[in-house]
Amino acid sequence: MSAENQVHPQTKHAVMATPTHDEFSRQEFVRSYKNYLVQNVHSGNQTRYEKIIKPKFEKTHNRAPKDRFEVGKEMVHDPYYQMFSSLLRTSQEMMWSSCQVPVNRDLENLNEKIKIPKGTKTLGSLKLDTKLKIPRYHTAVDIHCQPGGYHSEVTEDDASAGLVYDRAVHIYAMGQLGPYNDDIGASILLWLKNNHPTMAPRKILDMGCSVGHSTVPYAQAFPDAEVHGIDVAAPMLRYAHARAEELGEKVHFSQQNAEQTNFKSGTFDLIVSHILLHETSQKAIHNIVKECHRLLKPGGLMVHGETPPYKNMGPFDAFMLDWDTRNNNEPFWARSHEIDLEKLSKKGGFDPKNQFETLIPSALQVAEAKRSKVFQGGDFGGGGLWFIYGNMR
Ligand SMILES: C[S@@+](CC[C@H](N)C(=O)[O-])C[C@H]1O[C@@H](n2cnc3c(N)ncnc32)[C@H](O)[C@@H]1O
Questions:
Q1: Closest by CA position to 341, among listed 321, 316, 358, 319
Q2: Domain 175-392 is in which class?
Q3: Does the Cβ of 186 fall within 6 Å of ligand 1?
Q4: How far is the CA of 221 from the centre of ligand 1 (A)?
Q5: Is residue 234 a contact partner of residue 140, using CB atoms and an 8 Å limit?
Q6: 209 close to ligand 1 (CB < 6 Angstrom)
Q7: Would you call 222 helix, strand, or coil by DSSP?
Q8: I need a surface site. Which of 47, 269, 338, 354 has the fewest CB within 10 A?
Q9: Kindly report the CA angle at 187 between 185 and 192, in degrees rounded to 5?
């Protein structure tokens, strides 16, 4: 492992699945295997590109490849890239399977532990909507190869997808989202603290909250605020609720589509999302921004966190960051990284004058040694940077 990347062991909590010694070793192997690919194998692609592929292209065309498509046309035939790509795809499948085994083995007990009996006094709440239609952009494809996606249920009151996800994210991010997998939320909070130091939101909404990794930090940062997390997937929310209670944080979770929620207009001071947009369709992204506009109070702030867009990136880096579109069941990845954000704001009802988009450092990176700036494929492949896009209402 390179000295540049610091791995944070995941902090255990009572509702997590407990792997056996061998299951844990397998998970740790996948994490370090992924890290090895990024730190030691990934760079070979650039060497192949600079030394062989680009010069060959330049000889034929009298110019360098102008975009990621031209880079990709050549790279996909390169044996080194093919090897790298197949190893990375395999690591993704190994990751899900290594996290599924301990969950499936003990599912009945785990679901029982997660289920909070009716009448129990809790800090936050959980509202599920069994009639909610799961959007086709989730049912048609297992996003980033998670078997069954976020929403599938295998038994009554099932939280298995959430149980698997909590552990898999740690491995996916190679331990670089911090002990609670909460770096995206923490990074946006740090940006808020530096750029809106007087902001004291009373109502906060986290859209596409999953198991609440990024939601909990808002409850911690603004203890007097009412914090809501919404997601379309019931297994994620069951787990999110149990996890937040276990961590002693008050969050209200509800099963809702961020494109059209049941909150009243002008409810929130702050609406955030963390790596949600790239997993939804173009139409959904527009609906979500429009819904944010409806839900924000005047003067309220919308902030969406993603990996960096392609527009300021060289063609090679853009091609590598686009790996997911081609290999990781992320059909909306490319277009979400190329969307015209000014038009998006305008169509959503926002004044583009109040729009902002910027790269922010990961909160952990600020606190520690720098990560290598490798734009690799994957939800956490932004080289230690997050991209935020948003608007003031
Ligand atoms: C990559 S995960 C988000 C991770 C999470 N925000 C975090 O920071 O850890 C994307 C989540 O968005 C949810 N999702 C996708 N489309 C949605 C929609 N239209 N409305 C609400 N949730 C949605 C998925 O079910 C999934 O749990």
A1: 358
A2: alpha beta
A3: no
A4: 21
A5: no
A6: yes
A7: coil
A8: 47
A9: 95
What pTM was estimated for this model as a whole?
0.94
CB 10 within 8 A of CB 165: no
76 Cα to the center of ligand 1, angstroms: 30
Closest ligand 1 atom number to CA of residue 151: 25
CA–centroid distance, residue 210 to ligand 1 (Å): 5
Is the CB of 162 inside a 6 Å radius of any atom of ligand 1?
no
What whole-number distance in Å separates Cα of residue 204 and Cα of residue 102?
Answer: 34
Tell me how far CA of residue 126 lies from CA of 42, 215, 235, 238, in angstroms.
42, 14, 11, 7
**Ligand 1 in contact with 233 (CB < 6 A)?**
yes
Residue 375: per-residue pLDDT: 65
Pairing mode, strands 296-306 and 268-274: parallel
Domain coordinates of the chain in residue numbers?
A: 21-118+141-165, 175-392
Q: Which two tokens stand for residue 21?
A: 């010694």
